[in-house]
């Protein structure tokens, strides 16, 4: 039995490897997952939520370059290296975009950056403010690869950190939906009768409520926030899992191996968990991949409506909300970049779901 199981797994893996789009989507998901976990190591602005604002250089186009003066700060960042790795550093440095500077009479004289051909305000600061008077090390040329948002924040950093919410909400939502869906679907399919009728009544009521409306209701009940959205999305995606599990178990419990397990005196719990569920995992894997994509879209919609992840937390949906009006103001990339990111991630999960469906189909 074990050898047969291993051979079937190997065969499914070989079929999956032959699917070019499936393999490509797998690596896209792996790369985005890596970026989500180690975002603060990769981003130019590693402050918490990449929230370093420079209002004088707001809404700049991709590739914009400017000189940045970093003012020394006496406040020390006491975050641990682990906290910096996963949550960023405390924003303790004041950064000033400048257009020019010169040193005279033990003072640094600089001109603040000004837009639209204007001349910025000239200011001066004593060199003693800088440790060992090493001014040059505090002035650097910075390139904003994706430009800046309407608050002057580095857009590339916001995009990379925003991948976290869209990526991890898929895992949390699918995990919650599998827990609830497997439990209720197994009870309904295996026992039938009044239990089945009652659970199907709950499923039909939940199914009849628009998903976004149900998520909004749960979110308002739990409150606005990061984890509340994750839980709310997960609690609305279990219905399809429960229906599929119920249907699969109704068909599987009539098969001979289930009858044999009953004759051997195995408990219902063991029959369901050890014998039936392992044999119906193929459709569940496909549904989970589709639910990943659906969860990402729902979270993006919630963030766009303002009840998802709250500012200053970076979220692709919230970034579209903040900049969708820039589409008609000549800077559509501010809304298109996060939109394309959502599209790529959703498409990757849909393609890998299709590839898994084909690989696990024993008829092909």
Automatic annotation (TrEMBL):
Cited InterPro entries: BP-dependent_transpt_permease, MetI-like, MetI-like_sf, OppC_N
Domain of life: Bacteria
Family: Belongs to the binding-protein-dependent transport system permease family.
Protein name as it appears in the record: ABC transporter permease
Topological type in the membrane: Multi-pass membrane protein
TM region(s), chain numbering: 20-43, 165-191, 198-220, 226-245, 280-298, 333-356
Keyword terms: Cell membrane, Membrane, Transmembrane, Transmembrane helix, Transport
Matching Pfam families: BPD_transp_1, OppC_N
Naturally occurring in which organism (per UniProt): Winogradskyella litorisediminis
Subcellular location: Cell membrane
Residues of the ABC transmembrane type-1 domain: 163-353
